[in-house]
Amino acid sequence: MVLGGASHILSGLALLGFVGVTLWLLARPRARMAVLVPAPRWLIAAAAATGLWCAALYLFDSGSSEALVVQSLRNAVMLGWLAATFWSPAAPMSRPLRLIVRLLVTISLISLIMGAAAHLRDSTAAGQWLDPALGIAAMIVASGGLLIIDGGVRHASTTLRMPVMAVAGGFAMLWGYELNFQLLGALTGKPASALIALLPAMALLTLPAYVVAAMDIGRERMQLSRTAAMRTIILLGAAAYLILIGLTGAVARLVGGDYGDLAQGISLIVALGAGGLLFLSGRARAWLSVTISKHFFEHRYDYRTEWMRFTATLGDGGEQAGPDDDNLHRRVAKALAELTGSPAALLMRPDALGGFRVTDHWHWPTEEADETTLSLRSAFMLQETRHIVELDALRRGAMGVAADLAIPDWLVADPRAWVIVPVLHFQRMIAVVVLHRPAISRALDWEDLDVLRIAGQQAASYLAEAQSQQALSEARRFDEFNRRFAFIMHDIKNLASQLGLLARNAERHADKPEFRADMVETLKISAGRLSDLLVRLSPRARGRAAEAERVLVEPVLQAVAAELRPRRVLFVGCQAGLATWGDAASLRQIVQHLAANAIDASPPGSVVQLVAANEQGRVRIDVIDEGSGMSRAFVREQLFKPFVSTKDAGFGLGAFEALQLAQAMGGTIDVASEPGRGSKFSLWLPEGSAGGDVGSPEPMVPEPIVKVTTK
User: Fold this and answer.
1) Per-residue pLDDT tens digits for 490-499
2) Final residue of a domain: which of 239, 269, 296?
């Protein structure tokens, strides 16, 4: 009684729902409907016919002959939509399916006409033979309708698949439910009253299918993620297990006897055996994974997840990165192996002779592979053909063109070697990866080949970038050596000029004791400078920043004046106790460069001054000459550029090196010059406090700049 009342309420709700959907579909723009769903008029007719059927369920009993007569009308219209949808160029229907559609429509129309005529003439007398006939007809139509839906959906085009599956899925759900209780009634001889009473609820469940098909919902295909799908499969498996246990118990009660202990023991043995097999056997787990991927998913790979893991492995080894993952080449082998479920991989790189040699491996079970090579001919063939070689197919002689790739015998003979993947970067093969055979070996399909090819190109970009970084690092070392050598050549030129001047003066003043003393001192200084130059030329020479200390300025200026005395007597003026923070050798080199340039730019007999003082909390060292001076444009654009010089034999590195050294000590150079009126180079450096220690930290200074002014 309660179930009958609920069925009546559900029938009313279904009637209202389908009336509303029919009116809504009629109000939708017909052109828009034609774009979204095939055969929109038949869809509206199907909704209206289902509404009439729901009205019959509401007015009469769910299992009444009146409802079965209206159900025949509903089935005929639903078959009309299926025929209009699948019997088209977009989704061609096979000849057998066309015949089945015609047959089912005929059965539905005959049932409708016979039932309507019987009820109009004498409904009481007709009930004895009409209900079984209409039930059999409904079973036939439901079975055939499910067959049409299965064949039609599988051959539907991609653009139609989502709306077609929405409506056809609703039809299939309704027909499947009706076929279920009809079969139960036919087998047991009694109508399945509970299932028949819930028929309006099933009609309500099909209502959203019409809404989804006629809207923009689902135009982009929706699908569960691999994780959600796997959990759903597990839940369905658990549900199937519970159903099996229930059916087993029901059969045991029907047969009679006490089989409870036997059933419990068998279920325990099966559960422990299956669980233990999956837990202990990697081969069993691999087989289950391959089977699920093959039969439950459209694609073998979950591309989003696999690509994120692949990129993470190439980038930093992923979250579980170990100490061996610091090697990029090993990470490339690992990423390609994990992508295909391979437990190990070899990576081969070019050797000095042009072939490829195994240089890295990931979990490969033997170390003997380090002596194996890939010939130059094989490398050329792989690079030109870009073939991904499946070694099992090559062993069977089924590789076609790939059989001519001259794969070495050690790879063909090793049963562990599964696939050879060339890693290509812009038509250039920079590595070769050999994948280990997985626990469950399988033949490669188009999806495997595409994934390996694209993944190889991605890995090649990482390897190419690493090679570029290595080449850039080597180029930087050569550049640093050349730069250091250029500076040293500049200093050697100055020393050569100084020694040449000393030799010329020795011809005239060698008999004077004062000159001989100066000559000995100059030679000592020059020898020391040459030794310093050799140290600077060494690649192990320490940087200037590591030698920072408190330096007194006056001794440095006096040493420079003494060194340049053979060329010109310099005027030195320095504030008492003035000190800076930096490197004494660098400071001396800066002042020496600036003073030498001042001497070169000054006429003979003119004065060159070295003046140092404390100004605004910083040390200022001025190098002043009365030479030809420079234009503002030259100072601004060319003075501190390397290899730009106004002297015929100059290297153009003196001012450039002076500025580099000053900036390294946290200072800068200020230039004031005017053509015909001389120049003043002002070196600004951090002040070294009187109480500062050698280990004191370097003071913070503003970013060095070059100022250009005129007198």
Assistant:
1) 667 666 766 7
2) 296
